[in-house]
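Long-time lurker. I teach an intro course on protein structure, and each term I like to show students one example going from raw sequence to a predicted 3D structure in token notation. This year I'd like something fresh instead of my usual example. Would anyone be willing to generate the tokens for the chain below so I can use it in lecture? Attribution to the forum is fine with me.
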Amino acid sequence: MSEPIPVWNFGGEPGDYVEGDEDTQVFIGCLTLRPGKNESVRVMNFGQLDKVDKIKQTEIDARYTMDLVNNESS
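-- Reply from a regular --
Happy to contribute to a lecture. Here you go:
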């Protein structure tokens, strides 16, 4: 979660995305960790919550940002 996360628009309208046709995928940008003192990824381990079910619980918290630019002319 500390690396940039690529974001693609697969669209919700007819013709936006055709499965199997990579030319119809539109790369929008990358989510990057927000700058500042709280930019790090926080991991909180809660351990095993139930004595019967041996499942451990962990929470990961991070804040991301992405700048978007509208290139359409009015």
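Some talking points for your students: The chain has a mean pLDDT of 82. The two ends are 37 Å apart (CA to CA).
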